[in-house]
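Hypothesis: this fold can be encoded by more than one sequence.
Test: take the structure tokens below, design a sequence, compare later.
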């Protein structure tokens, strides 16, 4: 197997024009890309474009001997050899027809045949009209594929090619790339675990239009949830308000306030074996919430605040063997404050970042952290992408799990 080879299947719909950009983004991640085009896809994008970008012959039919020096026999088994050589198959865009073929095992062209011969990770990004996406047949096929472990990168709401708004537009290319990168890592060392992750800020309402919150984007927690899923865990993500699409195959529970986050976390705590609290929970909320918008003239001279529940501290008193991981965002005496938090909340691991440092913190795609373990280790992780950071944190969790076993 060549860990840096990805097969990109492209099927026939308008979103196929994005495949050239997707290919480039995969190359940027260091992958070689072998493109497979279905016959209908050739109406939307030419093999020449994708061959030039991938610097590889684009496969378009099961029997392509006229383009090759080798005999027909060798050509005919390419659909079996290729999936063994590649680290993942990604189909983007995937039409309703493609989903139906994959779900029912029809193998009448190179891509559908290759799919059946693939034993590694398969990532599928559907794109179609909103009514097609909502059709019970398509829903059933998607359900079947999910239950077989295919990673579905759901389409998004948006302006569709036929000029209407609705769900069906192919997911953002970065989201697809992230699903591919995660899946292609291929490690399943969290199989059998249930990972409960919290992410994002919480919003504490003052009135129906105003609230207290913080700058957390949720990216770190979403990357952790996505990485845990890829590594085989059943993953539950409890998320405060964010702009991020839910990661594929993760149960995503949206909440708003610290109280709502607490109740969802407690509801799922007993089934979790690992809890990672990446959320930036607001520490205070207004002492009372006005049911009506406060008019300018009635503005209270002071906002009285009361503390929110400390969810993580509460979990540490209820734990029955779960690994507990906390996050801390600090701006001064970073390690000293972090050690105190690790002890006070009885955590196994605390991931601390100095949010004043360049490349660390809330909004960006990178982070710089130090991991502190209850056993006294201090593990600095230099600046890296939040996706890589997520995997490094999970590596540490897996190591702790082994030591606790
Ligand atoms: N946390 C929580 N509930 C809260 C506040 C924090 O579960 N009400 C969790 C966070 O998800 C994080 C950890 O506790 O994993 C540390 O959060 P942080 O805000 O850094 O620390 P606090 O305990 O709130 O302390 P301080 O704000 O004083 O630094």
């Amino acid at each position: 197997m060549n860990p840096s080879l990805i097969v990109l299947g492209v099927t026939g719909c308008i979103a196929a024009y994005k495949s050239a950009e997707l290919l480039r983004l995969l190359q940027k991640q260091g992958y070689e890309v072998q493109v497979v085009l279905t016959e209908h896809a050739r109406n939307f994008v030419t093999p020449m474009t994708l061959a030039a970008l991938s610097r590889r012959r684009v496969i378009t039919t099961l029997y392509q001997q006229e383009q090759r020096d080798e005999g027909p026999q060798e050509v005919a088994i390419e659909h079996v050899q290729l999936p063994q050589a590649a680290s993942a198959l990604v189909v983007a865009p995937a039409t309703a027809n493609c989903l139906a073929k994959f779900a029912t095992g029809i193998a009448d062209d190179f891509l559908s045949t290759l799919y059946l011969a693939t034993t590694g990770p398969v990532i599928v990004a559907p794109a179609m009209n909103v009514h097609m996406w909502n059709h019970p047949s398509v829903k059933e096929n998607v359900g079947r594929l999910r239950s077989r472990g295919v990673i579905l990168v759901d389409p998004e709401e948006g302006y569709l090619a036929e000029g209407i708004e609705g769900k069906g537009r192919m997911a953002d290319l970065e989201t697809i790339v992230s699903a591919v990168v995660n899946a292609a890592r291929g490690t399943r060392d969290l199989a059998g675990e249930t990972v409960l992750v919290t992410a994002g800020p919480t919003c504490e309402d003052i009135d129906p239009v105003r609230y207290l919150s913080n700058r957390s984007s949720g990216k770190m927690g979403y990357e952790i949830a996505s990485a845990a899923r890829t590594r085989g865990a059943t993953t539950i993500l409890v998320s405060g308000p964010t702009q991020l699409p839910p990661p594929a195959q993760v149960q995503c529970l949206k909440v708003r306030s610290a109280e709502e986050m607490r109740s969802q976390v407690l509801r799922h705590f007993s089934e979790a074996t690992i809890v990672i609290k990446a959320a930036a929970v607001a520490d205070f909320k207004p002492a009372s919430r006005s049911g009506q918008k406060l008019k300018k003239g009635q503005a209270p001279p002071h906002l009285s605040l009361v503390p929110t529940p400390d969810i993580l501290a509460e979990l540490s008193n209820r734990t029955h063997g779960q690994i507990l991981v906390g996050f801390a965002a600090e701006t001064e005496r970073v390690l000293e404050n972090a050690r105190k938090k690790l002890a006070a909340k009885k955590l196994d691991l605390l991931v601390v970042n100095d949010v004043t440092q360049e490349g660390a913190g809330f909004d960006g795609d990178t982070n710089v952290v130090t991991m502190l373990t209850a056993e006294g280790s201090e593990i600095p992780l230099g600046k890296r992408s939040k996706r890589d950071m997520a995997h490094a944190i999970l590596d540490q969790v897996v190591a702790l799990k082994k030591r606790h076993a």
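Confidence is low (pLDDT under 50) at residues 70-75. The longest strand covers residues 323-330.
Hypothesis status: open.
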